[in-house]
Amino acid sequence: MGRRIRSGRRGQTGFTIMELMVAMAIVLVVLSVAVPLYQKSVIRARESVLRQNLSSIRLVIDEYTYDKQKAPQQLEDLVKEGYLRQVPLDPITGNRSWKIIMEDAGTSTSQSEPGIFDVRSESSKTSLEGTPYSEW
Question: In sequence order, which residues have a C-beta less than 8 Å from that of residue 71 and are 6 or more positions away?
């Protein structure tokens, strides 16, 4: 590439239209491969953060339930009592609200006040594995 084009002026260089078209085609092929790979890596990273956040919240719910002999009534209880600095972000939905699963009244540690048993993502999307995020 970069051949001399002979014209009326000496020393003038440039690319032919064919060389420019080939270069653009190569760039487009590289982009068509790179963009989907990048998008999948972003989704994988969000899924990893979601798994970690769910694991952390569940661990803290268990610790709170063990310490207080009753499950928390809302996620903010975990923040107020110092178990969490703040409610973690759901990286799939982009907000701090979670689908809360309450204990059954018959199986709760405090039979009078059933509390939070589990949390899940509120997202209706499906993971790269094919399972809905709301089932994690």
Answer: 61, 64, 65, 103, 108, 109, 110, 113, 114, 115, 116, 117
d(CA 86, CA 91): 15
Let me know if 110 is exposed, middle or buried by CB neighbors in 10 A (0-12, 13-18, 19+): middle
Q: Are 59 and 88 in contact (CB under 8 A)?
A: no
Q: Could you read off the pLDDT of 39-79 as tens digits, one per residue?
A: 999 999 999 999 999 999 999 999 999 999 999 999 999 99
Burial group, residue 68, by CB count within 10 angstroms (0-12, 13-18, 19+): middle
Query: What is the DSSP annotation of 39-106?
Result: HHHHHHHHHHHHHHHHHHHHHHHHHHHHHHSS--SSHHHHHHTTS-SSPPPBTTTTBS--EEEEPPTT
Q: Is 57 exposed, middle or buried (0-12, 13-18, 19+ CB in 10 A)?
A: buried
| Nearest C-alpha neighbor of 122 from the set 71, 75, 86 | 75
